[in-house]
Specification:
single chain, globular, 0% strand
């Protein structure tokens, strides 16, 4: 949620209302507009937890076609932001001061939705949650640093280069770790095929999908920051991403399998897909709130906890194997993220919201 979603203080001014009650509402409104540092830290931690819950839900749905999962994952974002943007428009506030960037942003949003979300779902089914998250997050930050330099003219400091080198080594190490037991995608609760697609569930393919996902998210997030700096609301950008992504992914599903198998998806998988979308969107709101009051470096540090959370969840919830390469790769990822996050920045920039996340809504 962007700063344009703030509450108008005049709404609290009621003619003959009780003075104390009005003052209370004004304080509440001020807190929602400009949250304190403490609330920002809580929001940052909440975003990491919510993103982890979204990833757990996605990991739980690996038996469903990844494009079906990605389609319905985007639904909560569209359902929430559609009436919100309609209300913003009705109030007379602009949702995009420069509409020329919308046609350019749509294909970029498709990259984030189709390649980013689709490839990440494939990676979850191939190498598991514990390895997919650090590879994807590491690739995101590497790609963001490179694209930020090219598109946004952001400096690449020595610490950034060291962090990138560390993350590259981590990605290579994690790609050699053991994957999960192969599970063929299907749309019903019936028997799983006795001949799973082994090549698609190999660790190398899973690692390549995780890297592709991270790079796709880097293209998406950097371009979003570019358009936001030129007048587009974050909520408008996410709505465009959600709508275009849902339509494209639904088209892919229709071509690949048709719509009939969707009706056979068991209730448990529907619950996982919808919860993934809900957690993803609320995490986006939380991290946007945190970035209003915290420096980007602080949000990077808090966001790095996703790697540890995903690793613990992968091992404890899904019984994913713990190997020396997995532990080494996760440790290198955390080291790379820490090096990146501890570098000095001149000032926090609210438009960098999406560099700290790796999900296209």
């Amino acid at each position: 949620m962007s700063s344009d979603s703030s509450i108008d203080q005049n709404d609290f001014a009621v003619g003959d209302a009780n003075t104390a009650a009005v003052a209370w509402w004004e304080r509440l409104g001020s807190g929602m507009i400009s949250p304190g540092i403490g609330f920002g830290i809580v929001a940052g931690i909440a975003s990491a937890v919510l993103y982890t819950l979204a990833n757990i839900s996605l990991r739980n749905a690996i038996s469903v076609d990844p494009f079906i999962v990605s389609t319905f994952k985007a639904a909560p974002t569209v359902l929430v932001l559609t009436p919100y943007l309609a209300a913003v428009k009705a109030s007379g506030r602009p949702i995009a001061t420069s509409r020329q960037w919308i046609p350019i942003f749509i294909p970029i949003a498709l990259v984030g939705q189709v390649i980013g979300n689709g490839a990440f779902q494939v990676a979850l089914g191939s190498i598991g949650l514990a390895a997919s998250v650090p590879i994807t997050l590491g690739s995101l930050l590497i790609g963001s640093a490179i694209l930020g330099r090219i598109l946004l003219r952001e400096p690449v400091r020595a610490r950034t280069l060291v962090s990138i080198a560390t993350l590259i080594i981590a990605v290579i190490v994690l790609s050699q770790s053991r994957g999960v037991e192969p599970v063929e995608w299907h749309s019903s609760s019936g028997e799983v095929s006795e001949e799973p697609v082994d090549w698609l569930h190999s660790p190398i393919i899973g690692a390549l999908c995780a890297v592709s996902s991270g790079l796709a998210y880097a293209v998406f997030s950097t371009t979003m920051r570019f358009t936001m700096k030129r007048g587009m609301l974050a909520s408008m950008a996410m709505w465009i991403s959600g709508v275009s992504g849902m339509l494209a992914l639904a088209g892919i599903v229709a071509i690949r399998t048709g719509w009939s198998p969707i009706a056979e998806i068991p209730p448990a998988m529907w619950q996982s897909m919808i919860l993934a979308g809900v957690f993803n969107f609320t995490a986006f709101v939380a991290i946007s709130t945190a970035l209003k009051v915290l420096p980007v470096v602080a949000v990077h540090l808090i966001n790095a906890s996703q790697v540890a959370m995903a690793s613990v969840a992968g091992v404890l919830v899904f019984d994913e194997p713990v190997t020396k390469l997995l532990v080494l790769g996760i440790s290198l990822t955390l080291a790379g993220l820490t090096i990146l996050a501890t570098r000095r920045r001149p000032a926090p920039d609210p438009s960098t919201t999406f560099q700290s996340t790796f999900r296209s809504e």
